[in-house]
Amino acid sequence: MDAGEVAAAVWRAESATIVGGLVRMVGDVGLAEELAQDALVAALEQWPAAGVPDAPAAWLTTVARRRAVDHLRRAGRLADLPDDEASPAVADPAAPDDVLRLVLLTCHPALARDERTAMTLRLVAGLSTAEIARALLLHEPQVVARIAHAKRRLAELGVDPPSGTADRLGSVLEVVYLVFNEGYTATAGDDLLRPALVDEALRLGRLLAGHVPDDPEVHGLLALMELQASRSAARTDATGAPVPLAEQDRSRWDAAAVRRGLTALLHAREVQVGPPGPYVLQAAIAVGHARPEGTDWPQVVALYDLLVAVLPTPVVRLNRAVAHGRAHGPQAGLDLVDALVGEGRLPDYHLLPAVRADLLGRLGRDPEARIEWRRAAALTANAAERAVLLRRADALAAAATTGPTLGPAVHRFLAREDLSPASRRSYGQTLHRLVRALGDALPLAGLDVDTVTATVTTTWDAVSPATWNRHRAALRSFAGSLGRPELAGGLPVRTPARREPRPTATVPDGALRERTLWAVLADSGATVTAVLALDVTDLDLAAHRAGPVRFSPATAGLLRALVGTRTAGPLFLSDRRPAPTRTPGARDLCPHTGRRRLSYERAEYLFKQASGGSTLRSLRQATISSSSLPFVSDTAR
């Protein structure tokens, strides 16, 4: 490997250790990451000419610590460090506990789940923004926004370590298993597996097991992941299509991974005090599947009965139904699945209709099974899974009942020439959701008022009266086009509640930028994204507009004061210039001040602070309260 490849490999393996040690020194996650990345940049610049050092990880650690000490010295905070931390010449990597501390920090329960996952992949797994975006099927700006929000939230909360790991360990295990599952069965994309994510989750699991040796759930999770990962080679065929567990060639399972999983589960049982937790039970279920002669279904059923008592989630209940269907016959499993359906659980989870299809097929109810296979295919975003599900549907004989089916009927209705584009979009939202819930192959003869009422109530019972009435109107129009208006007869009109007054934000006199932004939103009714995307060149103050956004003369006066002498760049600017490593594109950078465009997240935070928790969307046609709205001094700009 050349010097650059060595640096990248060392960074992937050691970045968590380095960043974790820096967090302990500087007390700021964002700053710690910047200092560590500065050390990586120095390595990329120096190693090709000077050669890779004998201890590259120690080299990166030393350079990063020196920069941290320099930063603290400039900030006048060097005296806060203990003597053994203040020396920049320390060349040993940070203490192993720093990594655990970093994991606990990135998985702080105050962060949203997607923020925890992105932060963990970034700081602990060492993935780049592009790699995280590919792994989580997001755009890079979305990943950047999540990580930035998480860092700001952690800065508000502080980075002091928790009194123990117990208050945060559950969140850590949840994130690690979420990463593993996304790699083991990708939720979208062309491939079923993402091996890099599986490997990262296993690495984190082993790291946690080493740092928390006496927690059975940690070892239970590691055992579960090892046992599931052992099947990876047998889970797809030569074309990449998924292979069900019952049809897998067990000789292709990784025997070493199975042994590691069994060892981890035995260790979990050795340290277990009291009843087993959910990860230990799930690992035991995986062991039941790992028998060379085949799955021990009675044992798996008994374990699922225990698991559902401690983790009664809809997915666990669905898996329990599968086990009962194998151990006690398909009707037993179908009864449990239909109970979930009746409760409105997992309405968009493709495995629910897939499980139901399998059970119906085993009962000889092929026409119904075919509908469910097609419904499952429509719900999944993974191309490999969709292809298999459609093949399962096509393998069954078409429904014996002749006549039109739901999917084509909806398509014909939405293609009518008398529907305006707006009506077509509105009706389409309702009717496409109906097709997803019932299947495009459902015969119209089998559509009745009870089915429509149950589906609509399950899907939209919690929405506002106005939204409910909109969906009801779409279904009435569709039912009328079929000559069956009674289909919508079970859907009563809902009376909207009395409209609450719009939120009022108390705006400080000095905050010109905030006052102006909120006034534009309140005047124009435009979306927050559209207003933040405005540039100075979009302004036409004489006409009281900026592109498609219109505003009042008073707001035009605020905009005139906000812009001042600027002639180009974003209209609304951030408070500070971006860091050297985070320079935005030219369109998002002000050529006069060097500051970047104000982010949605920062604008939202400022308004929540001022309004007591309301969101920016609520500002459309709202009232901005201030004792001196027309003007403030230039110092706020």
Task: Describe the fold and architecture.
- By secondary structure, the protein is mainly α.
- The protein has five domains: 3-75, Orthogonal Bundle (Rna Polymerase Sigma Factor, Chain: A), CATH 1.10.1740; 99-236 and 250-296, no CATH class; 315-394, Alpha Horseshoe (Serine Threonine Protein Phosphatase 5, Tetratricopeptide repeat), CATH 1.25.40; 406-488, DNA polymerase, domain 1, CATH 1.10.150; 504-636, no CATH class.
- Helix content is 59%, strand content 3%.
- It has helices spanning 3-26, 29-50, 56-74, 83-86, 97-106, 113-124, 129-136, 140-157, 166-184, 195-211, 216-229, 255-271, 278-289, 297-310, 314-328, 330-342, 351-362, 366-379, 383-394, 406-414, 421-438, 449-460, 465-481, 512-524, 528-532, 553-563, 600-611, and strands at residues 188-189, 381-382, 504-506, 539-540, 545-546, 549-550, 623-625.
- The strands form three sheets. The chain has a three-stranded antiparallel beta sheet, covered by helices on one side.
- Helix 7 (129-136) crosses helix 8 (140-157), helix 16 (330-342) runs antiparallel to helix 17 and helix 17 (351-362) packs antiparallel against helix 18.
- Mean pLDDT is 81; it is low at 89-96 and 621-637.
